[in-house]
User: Fold this.
Amino acid sequence: MTTDTLFATETRTPASPAARAAAPAAAVAQRLDFYAPIHKALRSCMLDTLLRCGRLDVQDSAEMQATLGRLDGLLRFCSRHLQHENDFVHPALEARRTGASWRIAGEHVEHQHHIAALGDLAAQLRAAGADSRPALALRLYRQLALFVADNFQHMHVEETAHNQALWATHTDGELTALHDRLLASIPPADMLDDLRWMVPALTPQERAGLLNEIRQTMPPEPFANLVDQLRPHLDHAAWAKLAPAIGLPQQPGLVCFA
Ligand SMILES: [Fe+2]
Assistant:
């Protein structure tokens, strides 16, 4: 897989007024955006999980198992994502601009504590008797809402300040090499989980671009199998746009939705 743009998008670098006056808009360089696609995936997973926790029927054991399982998945997703940023992005930033990642690195420590606390609350809810479940579920829902709110603020800083710092201190080739090293560290099962949340969260153009990148690196059958695993998470309109864009038949009639 040429991972040049997998999990990343290209974004126009905001130019200064002087630069805008000196160069036509089309000449402004496009830069690799590490954060945008994976953060869309995270926001989607966070919101889906939060809504599920909010409507959880704590007297329905199957629903409890499914919802808390989804929460476990979200917490693993958040943990490995912040670890990727700690292991790859922050060292690259610090090597060129000391202190550039300190604020966000500190927030990652807080997030790790919050993730552990949410895991503990979920364990308490699983073990609780019927009478104490409603209060515990409401507490879990509120704590998860605060975690999501904090992450939304955090991701905005990364997508703005951190991207600006990365673009100012690294060439496109360096960013692509860094991004490829990060992707190469992700086990296949985690990659599939990431794509499950990322692909539906992207715009139709981003979605087709990502899957066409992947398509160029895989034989047809494994690619079709991958798309089969992602397709149930797309609605009909999304699939109708995606199928022709990635060279697959539309095959109407499949029941969709996550
Ligand atoms: Fe982060």
Notes: Residues 26 and 48 are 38 Å apart (CA to CA). Residues 1-5, 12-28, 253-258 have pLDDT under 50 and may be disordered. The longest helix spans residues 133-169. The chain has two domains: 9-187, 203-258.
